[in-house]
């Protein structure tokens, strides 16, 4: 290019020198030089006009205007560049079309929105699953089409680690699992998966467990009643029957506890338990639990302390919160040897409210922690016989926290103790900013059996068998 440019320059200078020499020969050097320059200017004007017309309609298939010299080279190079761009554009378009075709062939609905949530594109499955119509819905704000407070909260949260399950706005019998990904300049790709079948199976499982538990409750109440009568009249029983009746009674209590927990869990899970969203003063709830925990500890004399560092109220269902907190505290008692230390702390910061239940008990091997909230999962199956646990306590805690937009954090080391922390979002705290107030140990005492807590407490301290 450099060579060709200097070649053209040399050509121009040669022509102008020719004009000058001719001018000297004819006696009009300046006039002929001006004439040459004017001629060059005129030619340049004609060529630039050609280029202007050509660029206005740069049809790649059309050959560039014919020209010579510098302008000829310019036209040729521009034409080559134009053809190259065309090819790249076509290649890109083919790739975009392939991606569109493949996403169209997907069974999952895919919707693209810009950073504001305006719908830019969707695939065929999205049309089916979400009922979008190309004539009216393109360019609409997504929250106008998926009108659900849960979806709005999820969409605006920008935290898309967990998917969201909702019924389809257009076909309510279809259950959809939404997963959003951020890309580009805060644009969003929303993938909606049809999970109706899974949802129905899950529903059937819950209904089955709930029905079986309810059905078993009546016969078990009858058996427990008779066993209680037999125990009350133990003196009339032959000695070899006394032990049998006592063991049967303990096992019946365990079954009762299990059924109570199963029913409670399925109620919390399917939302059958009326979710009573009111403002709860955490202190009295924790004080009562500490009182029951001391009763459960009994002769083991755990050192149980409570510290309430924030006096704002927590929005939620009192029964469910009581149930979750008591499960954690009673677990701390069960899994901490006699005279061990248990610290319960309620605190709040800009992130929200936090309930920590910390013990210096037997601890848990970290490999078990991710699975602890599964139903019937036990870190050490051989241990539970000593504690009388149902294996459902942490599953109840998890579901209560899910209902309260909360999260459970478990930190533990074998032999060093455990800390279970329930995190609640800041928008569930109502009241003035925190002001630190410590409530030192509540009066210790209760050495007898714990009173029966309401069913909502999920675990009843008096059901726990004496530790071996
Ligand atoms: P369980 O009725 O068996 O206590 P949970 O669901 O309440 O069932 O707890 C599940 C398992 O987690 C327990 O079996 C126990 O192995 C472990 N675990 C719970 N809390 C503690 C704790 N504070 N210290 C040690 N292990 C615990």
Automatic annotation (TrEMBL):
The chain crosses the membrane at residues 12-43. InterPro entries: BphY/WalK/GraS-like, HATPase_C_sf, HATPase_dom, His_kinase_dom, HisK_dim/P_dom, HisK_dim/P_sf, PAS, PAS-like_dom_sf. It comes from the Bacteria. PROSITE patterns: HIS_KIN, PAS. Residues 441-468 are annotated as: Disordered. It catalyses: ATP + protein L-histidine = ADP + protein N-phospho-L-histidine. Residues 457-468 have a biased composition (Basic and acidic residues). The keyword Hydrolase does not apply. Keywords: ATP-binding, Cell membrane, Isomerase, Kinase, Membrane, Nucleotide-binding, Phosphate transport, Phosphoprotein, Transferase, Transmembrane, Transmembrane helix, Transport, Two-component regulatory system. Its main location: membrane. It is found in: Cell membrane. One of its GO terms (molecular function) is kinase activity. It is an enzyme of class 2 (transferase). PANTHER family: PHOSPHATE REGULON SENSOR PROTEIN PHOR. This is Phosphate regulon sensor protein PhoR.
């Amino acid at each position: 290019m450099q060579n060709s440019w200097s070649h053209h320059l040399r050509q121009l200078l040669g022509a102008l020198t020719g004009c000058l020499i001719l001018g000297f020969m004819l006696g009009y050097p300046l006039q002929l030089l001006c004439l040459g320059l004017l001629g060059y200017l005129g030619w340049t004007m004609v060529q630039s006009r050609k280029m202007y017309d050509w660029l206005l309609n740069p049809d790649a298939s059309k050959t560039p205007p014919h020209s010579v010299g510098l302008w000829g080279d310019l036209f040729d190079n521009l034409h080559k560049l134009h053809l190259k761009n065309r090819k790249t554009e076509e290649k890109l378009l083919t790739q975009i079309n392939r991606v569109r075709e493949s996403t169209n062939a997907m069974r999952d609905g895919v919707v693209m929105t810009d950073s504001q949530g305006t719908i830019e594109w969707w695939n065929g499955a999205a049309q089916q699953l979400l009922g979008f119509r190309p004539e009216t819905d393109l360019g609409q704000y997504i929250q106008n089409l998926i009108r659900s407070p849960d979806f709005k909260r999820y969409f605006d949260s920008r935290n898309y680690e967990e998917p969201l399950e909702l019924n389809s706005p257009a076909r309510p019998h279809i259950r959809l699992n939404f997963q959003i990904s951020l890309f580009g300049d805060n644009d969003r790709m929303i993938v909606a998966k049809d999970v109706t079948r899974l949802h129905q199976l899950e529903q059937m499982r819950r209904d089955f467990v709930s029905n079986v538990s309810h059905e078993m409750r009546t016969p078990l109440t009858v058996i427990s009643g008779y066993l209680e009568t037999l125990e009350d009249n133990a003196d009339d029983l032959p000695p070899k029957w006394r032990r049998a009746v006592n063991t049967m009674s303990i096992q019946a209590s365990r079954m009762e506890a299990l059924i109570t927990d199963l029913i409670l869990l399925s109620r919390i899970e399917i939302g059958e338990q009326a979710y009573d969203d009111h403002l709860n003063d955490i202190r009295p709830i924790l004080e009562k639990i500490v009182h029951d925990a001391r009763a459960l500890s009994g002769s083991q004399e755990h050192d149980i302390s409570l510290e309430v560092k924030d006096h704002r109220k927590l929005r939620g269902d009192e029964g469910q919160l009581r149930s979750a907190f008591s499960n954690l505290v009673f677990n701390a008692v069960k899994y901490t040897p006699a005279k061990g230390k248990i610290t319960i702390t309620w605190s709040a910061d800009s992130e929200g409210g936090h309930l920590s239940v910390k013990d210096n008990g037997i601890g848990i091997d970290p490999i078990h922690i991710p699975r602890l909230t599964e139903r019937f999962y036990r870190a050490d199956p051989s241990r539970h016989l000593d504690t009388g646990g149902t294996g459902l306590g942490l599953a109840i805690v998890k579901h209560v926290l899910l209902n309260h937009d909360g999260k459970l954090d478990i930190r533990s080391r074998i032999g060093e103790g455990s800390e279970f922390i329930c995190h609640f979002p800041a928008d569930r705290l109502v009241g003035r900013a925190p002001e630190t107030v410590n409530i030192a140990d509540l009066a210790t005492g209760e050495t007898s059996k714990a009173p029966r807590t309401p069913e909502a407490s999920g675990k009843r301290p008096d059901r726990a068998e004496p530790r071996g």
